[in-house]
Design goal:
By secondary structure, the chain is an all-alpha fold. The protein has a domain at 9-71. Helix content is 52%, strand content 0%. It is built from 5 helices and no strands. 1% of the residues are buried.
């Protein structure tokens, strides 16, 4: 089991990105230099934003991923749908009221 203590936010970001971009060594070096060059008073949100922008703009894409992005196709799809089934007793079912516009639409047909 691989367990490490997190001592500061930079160590945490480096640890997570180490797994995400293992084969992309050049990008790792770029991210390290970016983290080193950030000012000390830079907030967490700004740090994550900068690291995310660099990782998205500097990483290599496969031909398939590039084609999907150019055409605008979704990169992932799901083959299963989720349906909520209320398993409470009928007297305890959750009820959701429809808006007046939706109710009018139903009665017009």
């Amino acid at each position: 089991m691989d367990i490490q203590y997190v001592t500061n936010i930079n160590a945490d970001v480096n640890y997570i990105l180490g797994y995400v971009i293992k084969p992309e060594r050049e990008l790792g070096e770029l991210l390290k230099s970016t983290l080193k060059d950030m000012p000390e008073n830079c907030g967490l949100r700004e740090r994550l934003k900068r690291v995310g922008n660099i990782s998205m703009n500097a990483r290599e894409l496969s031909a398939q991923e590039a084609a999907y992005r150019v055409v605008g196709l979704p990169l992932r799809t799901m083959s299963r749908t989720v349906v909520y089934a209320d398993c409470n007793k009928p007297s305890q079912h959750t009820r959701i009221l429809k808006s007046a516009a939706k109710l009018n639409k139903l009665t017009n047909y």
